[in-house]
């Protein structure tokens, strides 16, 4: 079950009203930092950039592969444990903008989690310690510790341990 905060909007769609909900300058700064981080091959530098400039909580030895896309609006809502791998071209979202509302949710990823390439993690989910997320998965609900999940819709393949 995703844990989301919901905010109604009136008039035009929620995305059209984006700068009434988040500062343009915050989004500009986040965009520059995230684009730089996506290209840097130095894992420790990425982690430092994200912790210092985006206020993300990231554990020691966590590695972001090339082209990982973090939420541009609310990256500070992402918390990642230690010794975790975020695979190539993965997207981690903490917001959803719809026609008449927008939703925000924290994303919590545990310790020693393996996230395969091209995965999308939706707002409001928790991924437990030692979980494995197969490549191309859309993580649309919580993943328990030691679970192996894959696909869209996400399905549990097995639970280790």
Automatic annotation (TrEMBL):
Keyword set includes Transferase: yes
GO molecular function: transferase activity
Gene3D superfamilies assigned to the protein according to its UniProt record, in alphabetical order: Hexapeptide repeat proteins
Pfam families in alphabetical order: Hexapep
Superkingdom field: Bacteria
PROSITE patterns: HEXAPEP_TRANSFERASES
Keywords of this entry: Repeat, Transferase
NADP listed as a keyword: no
Full protein name: Acetyltransferase (Isoleucine patch superfamily)
Record organism: Seinonella peptonophila
């Amino acid at each position: 079950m995703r844990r989301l905060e919901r905010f109604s909007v009136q008039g035009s769609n929620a995305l059209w009203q984006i700068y009434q909900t988040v500062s343009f300058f915050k989004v500009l700064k986040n965009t520059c930092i995230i684009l730089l981080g996506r290209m840097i091959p130095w894992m420790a530098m990425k982690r430092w950039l994200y912790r210092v400039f985006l206020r993300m909580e990231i554990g020691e030895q966590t590695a972001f592969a090339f082209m990982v896309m973090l939420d541009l609006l609310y990256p500070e809502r992402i918390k990642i444990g230690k010794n975790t791998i975020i695979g190539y071209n993965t997207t981690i979202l903490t917001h959803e903008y719809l026609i008449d509302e927008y939703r925000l949710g924290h994303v919590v990823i545990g310790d020693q989690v393996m996230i395969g390439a091209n995965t999308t993690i939706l707002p409001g989910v928790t991924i437990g310690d030692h979980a494995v997320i197969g490549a191309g998965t859309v993580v649309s609900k919580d993943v328990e510790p030691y679970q192996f999940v894959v696909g869209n819709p996400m399905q549990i393949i097995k639970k280790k341990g």
